[in-house]
Structures are given as structure tokens and as C-alpha cells.
Amino acid sequence: MARPRQFDETEAVTSATELFWRRGYHATSVRDLGDELKLTPSSLYRTFTDKHTLFLRALDHYRATESAEARQHLNAADRPVREALREWMLWLVGCPAGGKPGRGCFVVNTATELGTADEKVRRRTEAAFEVTRQDLRSALAGGRDRGELSADLDIDAAVELLFTTVLGLRVRERAGHDIERLTAAIDAAIRALGPAPAEPA
Question: Which Pfam family, just one, is annotated for this protein (predicted)?
């Protein structure tokens, strides 16, 4: 009879996510993971196969955690779309998904570290980016339908502007840029959506 595992696999993935998020893929060794997860190399390999497989699981865990939180912050059903967008972007340069200031976004960090060289990683980062685009598109379309945004607003162009702004914000947050400067960039991006339509006379 197989011996039961003496650890919680979900907790182990969560701990690995924190380590990879903090240090990056290349700077994290198998020994580092063993120390963080309190596993011997043989136990780690037996459970997760290798470092790369564990990294993919960590990335999936982060995406699932952050995406749910991000959608809550961007849900504009109960407040004006500009207000929802501003609050969401301020949250992104704060501490989402249990992060710490200066750590940035695990997905963005991964995309900049590994680029397109790793196809399995690339598919995950692109999927995460597309979720953000779709959430932005839904928020903007809802605002336009409610008359908060101009009827002739180019939704696709606005999505790309805000998405690019978000990626830049998260890189700048990791670089330790002042929150007041990031807030100014956020406000400028919101203004780029154009003035609110005038109330009918």
C-alpha cells in the first residue's frame, strides 16, 4: 500500500507561487523550492515531476486567484465605469492576490523574464492577458450601454490603450515608482476615454 503524502499539495503550490513570484523562474533553484516547501528533492520530484512543472502549476494558481479578485474590482454594475476602472487600476498597483509592494504581477514578471521562448508559459501568460482584455471590454461596453461613455467610443482601441497602460503600471510598480505618479498616469488614461456624454436638456 502506498504511503500517504505528509503534506498538503495545494499549500505546497501556494508556497511555490510565493517563491517564484518573489525571485523569478531562473533565480529559483530546486534546493530553494525544497527549503520553502520543506520537501526533500526526491519528494518534490515525485509529486511535481520537475521545477518547470511546478512553475506551471504556480502560474495557474496565481492566475486563478488574481483573476477572481480582479473581476470583482472591475465589475462596474453598481458604480460608474470610470470609477470602477480607476479603482481597479489603483488596486493593481497596490497588493493584489496577497502580494507585497514592489513585487509586481507574477504573470507580467513571467512574460518579461521568459518571453516567448517557453511555449507552455507563453500560452498561459497570453490567456491571462486575454482575460484582462475581455474584462475591460465588458466594463467599457457596459458603460457605453448605460450612457456613461460616448456612443461612438472605439471599444477595441480603448481596451488596448487601457491594457497597455495596465502592463506599464505593473512594471513601474515593481520598479518602485511613486504611487502619486502612477495615479497621475491612471487618471490620464481615464480621461482619454473622453468626456461623459451631456445630459439631455
Answer: TetR_C_13
Instruction: Give the separation between CA 136 and CA 115, rounded to whole angstroms.
Output: 24
As a whole number of angstroms, the distance between CA 24 and CA 199 comes to: 50
Cell numbers 471599444: residue: 155
User: Do 116 and 166 contact (CB within 8 A), yes or no?
Assistant: no
Confidence at 3, pLDDT banded by 50, 70, 90: very low
Domains of the chain: 56-192 (1.10.357.10)
Helix, strand, coil share of the chain (percent; to 5): 70, 0, 30
Q: Are 138 and 58 in contact (CB under 8 A)?
A: no
The set of residues, in sequence order, having a beta carbon less than 8 Å from that of 162 and lying 6+ positions away, is 85, 89, 136, 189
Q: What is the pTM (predicted TM-score) of this model?
A: 0.86
Q: DSSP assignment, residue 193?
A: T
Alpha-helix runs per DSSP H in 75-154: 81-92, 106-114, 119-145
**Per-residue pLDDT tens for 99-152?**
455 688 899 999 999 988 999 999 999 999 999 999 999 999 999 999 999 999
